[in-house]
């Protein structure tokens, strides 16, 4: 075939459907599960849809992405929301991001945070550190580091934070003492809103419904229950069965049991790629909060965030938690109420950027392209993945 696409998550489905829009139908999608959607799948729990891969929402900012996806699930089937995300830090529950909303804390806490921000390394002109933990202190000050960023990231990614690089943190703004002080005095947030400041969520379905519709549009061009166990790079062949001119890989490279044709240095580098696994658990309780989701850095709680389903999924009740698998205790819990995602987040470890560039540059010369969260090993949201899939399909056309 012309194209072989590994994985029927947002990346693979978007790329395949863009091929069809470009008049190309000589392709096949391989998916190891019996249902499409990847991390964006949903299933019915407690009488309403729940997203088993965690919180996924459709950002409103990219018109090309919206036009593409609304072609499968029209705009009238979605509700629009203004993001309400919060952080439970100490005795305070404030809006996110923390640095813009310190003014919502108790006065005595505001004073302590302001004092810490005033002497943060970035505000004193100190050189930027290389290690993750040192960088957090330097960028945000002791209080934000110790009360929120460090414990939260340990819960989400693991205890050894210094194995992470700092390259992915550059999007964090400098926490200006002057701006924070003015914010506290005027009692209003400053700066720009984080991602998903406005978002869409289906009116009557979980987010997974969108991807089921993209899969349906492909008809028989998806083969389910077919895991990519072996990839022959030079022969552009998968499982000794499927051969193509071009292979688009959207699955985790480390989930492929055997890859032939990689240089020794790249094969060794693959073994160093790391990821985290999370558990999504449904809790049948109503919460008295208008928040869509809440972050919990408290080490005493296993989960690191909750998503309040009844605030964005009409007619539903309850909420779901997201917990790193290493912190999850399934004793006495109903297996029907939780779902384990082995591959949840690619970790931004030291050296990962350089390695992935070398890997993808090298495989591209062989006609094999990495795409999406796992094919590129980047923490992309689904809307970003769709944009990249559209762009790659158009480029290859």
Structure, described:
It is a single chain. It contains 12 helices and 21 strands. By secondary structure, the chain is α/β, with parallel strands linked by helices. The strands form 5 sheets. It has a 7-stranded mixed β-sheet. The protein has a 5-stranded parallel β-sheet with strand order 10-2-1-14-21. The protein has 2 domains: 3-83 and 200-396, FAD/NAD(P)-binding domain; 94-186, no CATH class. The two termini are 15 Å apart. Helix 3 packs antiparallel against helix 7 (177-186). The longest helix has 16 residues, at 142-157. The mean pLDDT is 94.
Protein topology:
Blueprint: E1 3-6, H1 10-21, E2 27-31, E3 42-45, E4 48-51, E5 58-59, H2 63-70, E6 78-82, E7 85-89, E8 92-95, H3 107-118, H4 121-124, H5 132-140, H6 142-157, H7 177-186, E9 198-202, H8 208-216, E10 222-224, E11 230-232, E12 237-238, E13 242-243, E14 246-249, E15 258-260, H9 264-270, E16 275-283, E17 293-295, E18 305-307, E19 319-324, E20 338-346, H10 352-364, E21 368-370, H11 372-375, H12 382-396
Can you count the helices? 12
Mean pLDDT: 94
CATH superfamily of the largest domain: FAD/NAD(P)-binding domain
Tell me the fraction of residues in β-strands, as a range.
Answer: 15-25%
* Spatial ordering of strands, largest sheet: 8-7-17-18-19-16-20
Alpha-beta content class: alpha/beta
Rounded to an integer, what's the Rg over CA atoms? 22 Å
Helix content: 25-40%
CATH topology name of the largest domain, in short, is FAD/NAD(P)-binding domain
Shape: globular
Number of domains: 2
C-alpha end-to-end distance? 15 Å
CATH-level-2 architecture of the largest domain: 3-Layer(bba) Sandwich
């Amino acid at each position: 075939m012309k194209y072989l696409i590994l994985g029927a998550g947002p990346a693979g489905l978007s790329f395949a459907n863009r091929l069809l829009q470009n008049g190309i139908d000589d392709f096949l999608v391989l998916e190891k599960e019996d249902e499409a959607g990847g991390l964006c799948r949903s299933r019915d729990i407690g009488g309403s849809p729940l997203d088993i891969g965690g919180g996924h929402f459709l950002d409103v900012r990219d018109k090309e992405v919206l036009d593409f996806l609304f072609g499968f699930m029209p705009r009238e089937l979605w509700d629009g929301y203004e993001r309400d995300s919060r952080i439970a830090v100490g005795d305070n529950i404030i809006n996110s991001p923390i640095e813009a909303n310190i003014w919502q804390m108790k006065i005595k806490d505001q004073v302590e945070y302001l004092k810490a921000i005033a002497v943060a390394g970035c505000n004193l002109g100190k050189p930027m550190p290389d290690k993750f933990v040192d960088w957090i202190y330097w960028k945000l000050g002791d209080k934000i580091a110790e009360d929120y960023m460090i414990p939260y990231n340990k819960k989400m990614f693991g205890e050894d934070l210094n194995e992470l690089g700092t390259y992915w943190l550059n999007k964090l703004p400098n926490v200006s003492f002057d701006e924070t002080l003015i914010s506290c005095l005027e009692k209003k947030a400053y700066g720009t809103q984080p991602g998903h400041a406005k978002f869409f969520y289906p009116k009557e379905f979980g987010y997974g419904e969108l991807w089921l519709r993209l899969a349906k549009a492909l008809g028989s061009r998806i083969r389910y229950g077919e895991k990519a166990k072996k990839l022959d790079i030079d022969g552009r062949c998968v499982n000794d069965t499927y051969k193509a001119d071009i292979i688009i890989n959207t699955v985790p490279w480390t989930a492929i049991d055997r890859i032939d044709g990689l240089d020794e240095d790249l094969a060794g580098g693959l073994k160093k790629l790391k990821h985290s696994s999370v558990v999504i658990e449904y809790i049948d309780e109503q919460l008295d909060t208008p928040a869509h989701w809440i972050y919990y850095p408290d080490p005493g709680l296993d989960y690191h965030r909750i998503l309040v389903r009844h605030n964005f999924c009409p007619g539903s009740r309850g909420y779901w938690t997201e917990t790193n698998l290493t912190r999850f205790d399934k004793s006495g819990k109903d297996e029907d109420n939780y779902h384990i995602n082995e591959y949840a987040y690619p970790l931004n470890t030291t050296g990962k950027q350089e390695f992935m560039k070398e890997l993808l540059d090298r495989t591209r010369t062989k006609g094999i392209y990495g795409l999406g969260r796992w094919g590129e090993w980047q923490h992309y949201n689904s809307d970003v993945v769709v944009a990249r899939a559209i762009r790659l399909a158009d480029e290859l056309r």
